[in-house]
Specification:
alpha/beta; 434 Repressor (Amino-terminal Domain); Rossmann fold; 3 domains; 4-stranded parallel sheet; 12 strands; 45% helix; elongated; DNA-binding transcription factor activity; Lambda_DNA-bd_dom_sf; transcription regulation
């Protein structure tokens, strides 16, 4: 009998057991076990016939797959790509395969994808990205709580989700450290590319920066609300330039790195030099910032650590654990020391 045509019924017949017993012996079962002697008989029959178990059937029998679902806002964003790479590596170490989906920054889509992971019987689910204030976070928390109640491991990256083990980025502390570093370099007046006002990440980074700035004698004299994208940073920087808001500004601070890259392109389009005419910073620590000219100052988030911790929490955490990950200011050529001029 050809191996690729051997069915579970053939194995059951060879072992002299029922189809249900053969299925439970090979695929496992969420609620029933098989006597050891019958398991031995069935596995011996499967070996003789060179039967290959069906992974989907095994997952259905055991009540869950070996899949870890990963939801990110935008895989094209280098920030999320770096997190995804770390999640994949950690999941593979744990014997899991990653199923990746993008939420496109849509809270309703995020909730739908979590429900899809539930119906696909994922072993664990990790969601990465900032949250928006309001009912969408409550809806997401409800879906994730339902997953945990069914024995599915869950973890969030970036912003804590109520009732869910989370790895949180210290946005307040990181942005405050950036403000202090820039003040120490002689910068006093700033413009902010804020990101979307409803996003908790943007709120925290703006607040941490502004509070530390005020305590140190600096001031924000212009703001531009923008999406967390290259296009958002580009458009926001153009607005600041074209309406004259950059007059008297020492440095433009973007609340994420991709926005900072868009702002750099906009400055060049308008004939402004960075850092000679205005300095520029980001937040995140994506690797491409080292390769642009000038290399951009940023607040580096340990994205690999975020992914590794999230997988561990999803597979082992009990209760509502929140682990905070610190950030480091990396000063590069886009913010030279003004005291030496």
């Amino acid at each position: 009998m050809a191996a690729d045509r051997v069915t579970l019924s053939d194995v059951a017949r060879e072992a002299g057991v029922s189809l249900a017993t053969a299925s439970r012996a090979i695929n496992g079962s969420a609620d029933r076990s098989v006597r050891p002697e019958l398991v031995e008989r069935v596995t011996a029959a499967a070996a003789r016939l060179r039967y290959s178990p069906d992974a989907t059937a095994q997952a259905m029998a055991r009540g869950r797959t070996t899949t870890l679902g990963l939801l990110v806002h935008d895989i094209a964003d280098p920030y999320f790509s770096a997190i995804a790479a770390a999640v994949v590596a950690s999941a593979e170490t744990a014997g899991l395969q990653v199923s990746l989906a993008t939420t496109q920054n849509d809270p309703a889509r995020e909730v739908q994808l979590v429900d899809l992971m539930r119906r696909q019987r994922a072993r664990a689910v990790v969601i990465a990205g900032g949250r928006s204030a309001g009912s969408s976070t409550e809806d997401l928390a409800g879906q994730l709580a339902a997953l945990r109640a069914q024995g599915v491991g869950v973890a969030a990256i970036g912003q804590p989700v109520p009732g869910v083990p989370s790895v949180a980025v210290d946005n307040l502390g990181g942005s405050a450290s950036l403000a202090r570093a820039l003040l120490a370099l002689g910068y006093r007046t700033f413009a902010l590319l804020t990101g979307p006002r409803q996003r908790t990440t943007a709120q925290e980074r703006c607040r941490g920066f502004s509070d530390a700035l005020g305590a140190g004698g600096g001031v924000v004299i212009a703001r531009s609300e923008t999406p967390f994208t290259w296009e958002g940073g580009h458009a926001g920087m153009l607005r600041l330039i074209d309406d004259g808001s950059l007059h008297g500004v020492d440095a433009v601070v973007a609340t994420n790195d991709v926005m900072a890259l868009g702002a750099l392109a906009a400055a060049r389009e308008r004939g402004l030099r960075v850092p000679e005419d205005v300095a520029l910073t980001g937040f995140g620590g994506i690797s491409t910032l080292r390769d642009v000219v000038p290399a951009l100052t940023t607040v580096a988030v340990p994205m690999g650590e975020l992914g590794e911790r999230a997988v561990r929490l999803a597979l082992t955490a009990e209760g509502d654990v929140v682990e905070s990950v610190g950030c480091d200011v990396v000063v590069r050529a886009s913010t030279p020391d003004l005291r030496r001029r």
